[in-house]
Design brief:
The protein has 278 residues and is of the alpha/beta class. Helix content is 27%, strand content 22%. It has 7 helices and 15 strands. A hairpin with a 6-residue loop joins strand 9 and strand 10. The model has no long low-confidence stretch (mean pLDDT 90).
Length: 278
């Protein structure tokens, strides 16, 4: 959503750009079971939203270059981007690569989007009267467990850290090791090294992977790219948006930030042009 929003705005302002990514846009979007908080769509599936995104992209005449970017280096007044061993030069850069979640449990990939998610606060309203299991990889995820407990009938919280856990009294804390998620068409069980739990959904709240190795010198805070309200990073001409800059990991938030990042990039180029004329 962030990349599409940025691209559409750059197209409107008639800027030349290359969009590196996948024509599938986002598997997380496609696999979403139900989306209820995207304005204009009271209820829509992830697959339907993807199809609308893709139709908008094609109608705008925007192409996606399916190459893997492996390194980005500041160079002169811009950046050099290495993608599939080819070098590209750009005046500005917009980072909107989302966050990567390590896949560790059996069938986690297969059940993603089928009552298996990486954002508890996003899906909590769907779990009224149901049972959810939350696997947290740091104490800061306890707030999401508390929020889920306000909605769900039963919440299991499995901390993947040694620190004391401080969650609502209604939450059952399990000091066990998750080993698999099971179910036919959707998640039905969480399997640990000690037991099996009947659940309606499982949430993995992992730390995001820092993109600092991709862009040397990029400032990272709490494993996300640090930006201001204009989506500017600490590197001149480099902007970031979407899940890569932090929670909440929601489509509408990402789309809005993509819009801001594109407008900021356009303004940056205009200022550079004025400076050159002077």
């Amino acid at each position: 959503p962030a990349g599409l929003s940025a691209a559409l705005n750059l197209k409107t302002y008639k800027k030349d750009f290359i969009w590196f990514g996948s024509k599938n846009l986002s598997e997380k979007v496609q696999k979403a079971e139900k989306i209820t908080n995207y304005p204009g769509f009271p209820q829509i599936s992830g697959q339907e939203l993807f199809e609308r995104f893709d139709a908008h992209r094609r109608a705008a005449g925007i192409d996606i270059t399916e190459k893997t970017v492996t390194n980005i280096m500041p160079a002169g007044n811009g950046f050099m981007v290495l993608a599939d061993n080819e070098m590209y030069e750009a005046r500005t850069l917009i980072l909107c690569m989302g966050v990567m979640s390590a896949k560790q449990l059996d069938r986690e990939d297969e059940l993603l989007g089928k009552r298996l998610s990486y954002c508890a606060t996003c899906d909590a309203p769907l779990y009224r009267g149901k049972t959810a299991a939350i696997i947290g990889f740091s104490p800061k995820e306890e707030a999401e467990a508390d929020f889920m407990a306000e909605m769900a009938d039963k919440v299991y919280y499995i901390p993947m850290y040694e620190a004391d856990v401080n969650v609502a009294d209604s939450i059952e804390v399990l000091r066990e090791k998750p080993v698999a998620v099971e179910g036919a068409l959707k998640v039905q069980e969480l399997v640990t090294d000690r037991n099996r739990y009947d659940v309606d959904g499982v949430f993995f709240l992992r730390e995001s992977v820092s993109p600092a190795q991709l862009v040397p010198g990029l400032k990272i805070e709490d494993n996300h790219i640090e930006v201001d309200r204009q989506m500017r990073t600490n590197l001149a001409g480099c902007f970031a948006c979407g899940d890569a800059v932090g929670a909440p990991y929601q489509y509408i938030k990402s789309a809005g930030e993509g819009n801001v990042a594109a407008l900021s990039a356009v303004a940056y180029l205009a200022e550079k042009k004025r400076q050159t004329k002077q």
